[in-house]
Amino acid sequence: MKIRVPKLVGALLAAALLAAAGACGLIGSSARADDWPVFLGPHQNSTSAETGLLLDWPADGPPVLWSKRLGRSYSPPVVAAGKLVAFHRIGDEEVIEGVDARTGAALWSFRYPTHYADRYAYNGGPRSSPTIDGDRVYTYGAEGVLTCLELATGQKVWQRALNKDLRVPQDFFGVGVPPIIEKDLILLNAGGPDGAGVVGLGKKTGETVWKAGDCGASYSTPLVVTIRNQRMAIFLTKAGLLVVAPETGKVLYEYPFRSVLHESVNAASPVVVDDVIFLSAAYYVGSVALQVAPDGLKCLWRDKKNMENHWATSLYHDGCLYGAHGRQEPDTVLRCLDWKTGEVRWSAPRSLGWLTFLMAQGHFITLGGRGDLVLIDVNPDRYVEKKRIRVLDGPCWAPPVLANGLLYIRNETSLLCLDLRAAK
Hints:
single chain, five-stranded mixed β-sheet, four-stranded antiparallel β-sheet, 42% strand
């Protein structure tokens, strides 16, 4: 497994200098930092408001602050209150692990048995990201075991075999959505029968509060937003769009959005800007922009070829939508659309394989499926690639995570922490 790690002496010297500078208040004193407590960041839109980042990378890329070997998993970590939480599998156990976000030092570990076996011969580790909410962390394992732990200690608060309780059948790749917290509820596209397609659970106990819909589970993480002064939970389920009132589960809107192919998935999260919901999927589905109106959903445009997100969620910025178009390599490219019309403004001239990305400080920080870390200018008119460095062996499926000047990237078994803090 390829991991680019600096020489020991250099790493120790760098760590000492960073610690000294930090103690003197010299690092990022005027920069803005932020945690990354949930999937796709603090606003669930793959966008970081951090400033003072070092984006003028040397030839071999940003310095590696620490690296950690993990069990098998596709789960991106989350970061809050100085702690990073990783979710992975070792042997026949799913492992939730808390480490120091700046050093990688182990803080606590919680394990429980798993017997998940992937039907398509992918690895058997967790697919979904943990979720940090205040002093609690929540995970939803590949077999549908929902767990709540204390963030500080890793002690179990409660655990529920949700998929077993709801009689949820195993889907193509097991469970792949993280818990989403809205006030005192956990919202999930569980995919259960008998009206348990989506559920609201009490976050303090895990008990079912409401159930809604007969839709199967997707791999798309829901959003909770306010549209026209009404709070809405927006799910892209296996069957399509389902919008419910998060406090009660009352169905507000529905829109079918699904490939005709049986072996296909909806995986990218919805993108919401003002009162418009954007959905996208691969498998010959394409994308659609739906306006939420008092009398129903209005289709602003729909196109089967302009943007086909396989699982990486697109990102909105200043009237443009940027996303990974295409199902697999070598066809997957970064693409820019006009938000209002769906017109393709540009496509990248070369592929990164499948890709995931976040936006920070006017740039896309992109992780290609083959392990390339790529810095791309956020530009509505053309593709501008500034740096491309191979940092990991592929495959890399999890999106990058940026928290407090540190970039976390991973492949199936390794996690790297890269230092993007600009010393002053």
